Amino acid sequence: MKRLLQGYARFRRDVFPQRKDQFHLLADSQQPDVLFITCADSRVVPDLILQTEPGDMFLCRTVGNIVPPQGQMPGGVSATVEYAVEVLHVRHIVVCGHSDCGAIKAVLPPDPSDTRDHRNLHRLPLTAKWLGYLEPAWKFLPPGVSTGDPRTLHVALIRANVIAQLENLKTHPEVARALAHHSLQVHGWYYDILTGAIDAYDQQQRRFLSLEDWAEKNAEGSF
What pLDDT does 220 receive? Predict the structure, then answer.
C-alpha cells in the first residue's frame, strides 16, 4: 500500500496539475475507440505497452483473457462487451494474450522442469470452472505442434486461446451485428513480456504476424 500511496501523491502533485484540462474534458463523458480485453496478469499493462492516454481504451481484464460464449456465465465480461459496443460504439475490440500465461499453464500437462504449482485448483473451485472456457483452445492449435515440448506447447496454446476467445466474442449478438454492418473490427494479439513485441492474428492467412507486418499488410484498410 505504501507504494500506491506514494504514487497517488506524485499523481496529485506532479501529474494531474499538468493535465488538468485533459481530465476536465473526460470528467463527464468518454469516447474510447477500442475495447481492449486482456489477462489480469500484473505484468501486462496496456497503457504502458501501447502508450495510450486516459479515455483512449475501454479495458476488460479477466484470468486468461477469457470471453465466455453468449449465454454462458453472463457477468462482467459480457456486460462490458455489450456496453462497449452498444453504448460506446467502439470500432475495434482487441483480445490480447501474453507469454508465460499461468491460466494456460494450469490446463497443460505437468512440466517436470517447472517447480511452480499452477494446478492446485481443488481449493479454487471458481477458478477451475472459469478455466473450463480454455478447453476450446486445443482445437485451434496449429498442426504439427509438439506436445512433448512443454514450452513450445505453452506458447502455441496461448496463441490458440486468443483465436478461441475471438470466436467466443463473435457469438455475442451485439458483436455479430456490428461485424455484419462493418462498424466493428475484432483483433487477436499475443504480447511477449520478455521482448515487448506483439504479434497479431491474420484471419485470412490463419497465422500470427508481427504487429508491424500486420499493420503494413492492412495499410489500405480502415483501422
Answer: 58
Check residue 118 and give its pLDDT: 54
CA distances to 114, 119, 196, 214 from 109, rounded to whole Å, are 11, 9, 27, 32
| CATH domain 31-209 topology | Beta-carbonic Anhydrase; Chain A (3.40.1050)
Partners of 37 in beta bridges: 60, 95
Say which DSSP state 204 is in.
Answer: T
Dihedral sign (CA 30, 31, 35, 39)? negative
Q: Give the pTM.
A: 0.91
What band does 75 get if pLDDT is binned at 50, 70 and 90? confident
Where along the chain do its domains lie? 1-30, 31-209
With contact defined as beta carbons under 8 Å apart, do 85 and 170 qualify?
Answer: no
Spell out a b/e string for 165-202, using b for 16 or more CB atoms within 10 Å of the CB, else e.
Answer: bbbbbeebebbeebbeeeebbbbbbbbeeeeeebbbbe
Cell numbers given for 188: 487477436
**DSSP at 73:** S
